[in-house]
Amino acid sequence: MIRKILCVDDDNISLTISKLLLRRTGFSDVIDTAVDGSDALEYLKILFETADNFSEEAPQLILLDINMPVLNGWEFLDAYMELYASKLPDTKVVILSSTIDPEDFSRAKKYPVVTQFLSKPLSTENLTELKENDWVASFFVA
């Protein structure tokens, strides 16, 4: 089981579905949320300032939507790479988006923290696919 997941999405229905599904399937008991990239960066900033052990209290997985107002997923990733990637080498990002633009898939591969690209909405099928990812599978070894 993944200790903590941060879901970043501007759609409240998607956030609710993701939280319920992640809990119900045993992916994680702790699911935090952010409504856009700016909110997610603020979440990490506060966690970094207040946590006794930032690397242990930070999310191990970030589910990130691309198309959001204020600060989109790409802008979040740029800031995350600069501010947090080196401090959180064990945290990975999964892009969860409804995009079908091949450029987005190519762009995602340029970020070393991005481990997978899944289609929205989150479902048991794409969680099963995610469990086959080498990095994610390590959390579910019996």
Account of the protein in words:
This protein has one domain: 3-Layer(aba) Sandwich (Rossmann fold). It has helices spanning 12-24, 37-50, 54-57, 73-83, 102-108, 124-131, 134-137; strands at residues 4-8, 30-34, 61-64, 92-97, 114-119. The chain is α/β, with parallel strands linked by helices and 142 residues long. It contains 7 helices and 5 strands, in the order E-H-E-H-H-E-H-E-H-E-H-H.
Q: How much helix, percentage-wise, in residues?
A: 40-55%
Q: Give the strand order, joined by hyphens, for the main sheet.
A: 2-1-3-4-5
Q: Please tell me the total number of domains.
A: 1
Number of helices: 7
Fold-level CATH name: Rossmann fold
Average of the residue pLDDT scores: 93
Architecture per CATH nomenclature, i.e. the level-2 architecture: 3-Layer(aba) Sandwich
CATH class: Alpha Beta
Q: How many strands, which pairing sense, and closed or not: the largest β-sheet?
A: 5 strands, parallel
Strand content: 15-25%
Number of β-strand runs: 5
Rg on CA atoms, Å = 14 Å
CATH superfamily: Response regulator
The end-to-end span amounts to: 10 Å
General form: globular
Order of helices and strands: EHEHHEHEHEHH
Instruction: Give start-end ranges of low-pLDDT stretches.
Output: none
The helix-and-strand class reads alpha/beta
Give a short synopsis of this structure.
By secondary structure, this protein is of the alpha/beta class.
Task: Spell out the key features of this protein.
alpha/beta; Rossmann fold; 5 strands; 142 residues; five-stranded parallel β-sheet
